[in-house]
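hey can u check if this looks right to u? its 388 residues, i copy pasted from the old doc so theres a chance i mangled smth
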Amino acid sequence: MDDPFAPRPEHKFSFGLWTVGNRGRDPFGDPVRPRLSPIEIVELLEEVGAWGVNLHDNDLVPIDATPAERDRIVTEFAQACGTHGLKVPMVTTNLFTDPAFKDGAFTANDPAVRAFAVQKAMGAMDIGAELGATILVMWGGREGTETDGCRRPDVAVARLREAVNFLCEYSLARGYGYRFALEAKPNEPRGDIYMPTTGAYLGFIPTLDHPEMVGVNPEVAHVHMTGLNMTHAVGQAWEVGKLFHIDLNDQVIGRFDQDLRFGSANPKAAFWLVKFLEDVGYDGPRHFDAHAYRTEGIDGVKDFARGCMRTYLILKDKAARWNLDPEIQDLVSALDHPSHPAPPVGRYSDKGAAALRSYDVDRTALGSRELHYERLDQLTTDILLGVR
């Protein structure tokens, strides 16, 4: 019998070279797993059933590679992806590892650093275009500060805008067709990062020269680090047409950026996120930006990757059950049934305003209405725990 939770290409599950290629190093310990080459990672991802592979520029091409080395590496990687049936939907730029970026990249005080950062991003776009990528994720890991004496934050935002505008124009000039997905994080590796939340980026995007080309890439761990609700962040982005990409992983609130296997720490929060994505018909990549425990070898890395995809599909099945459950749907339908007739709000008109002003509100009835959220939540828990 076929496994109903086995990944298929239509699920659009992707992993980064840096995720399954993570060697288990942390600030207190050396690597525990052997280095996998990009082509070995492609082979691994085919084995576990992934659809796509994403990369930072230097995950694939060393930062000091010659042009000839760069061309050979990209060509060989493209051939490997073709052989193993993997897509490259997204690329991004490493603007945080090299010491040149210790005080930022696009927002750095030194104009030479800013120029190098834009040059490097252009190079990543070139690589991505050769591999068929149409999404460029931009995470400003060093775009922040430990002391606000280093620069004014409004100057930093202006510099960031200048860089994004330039790269949008570069994509247009080259005919690359990129959509840019901006990724927020509150802190780490900087004490504070200038764009800490998805909402901050949604406020920034309308100030750009080409806002239609730019959206967001919410990440579960980055949202949970702040104690906020990932589904709400994704919902806001979706509602304004800016959910260009998504990073799925997990995170215990209040901890360092853990990048845990999807659904492993907060399965209920993961359920609501999966349900939202499936209900609204999100058809972009479902990218797992996570890594295996430090305790694992290569077999454990495969278990990790399979687990991310399996959990998503299990929760997708649970969401379908939730949507078809008669008792749950009776409760949900009742929530949208008015306690008694009321005029619609809608767009402003003098007539509408007059109707609202004359509306005879029964506050006692509104306040006494029972909503049965306890029952609704327990039924959800029953589904998640497999007893319903």
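The longest strand covers residues 52-56.
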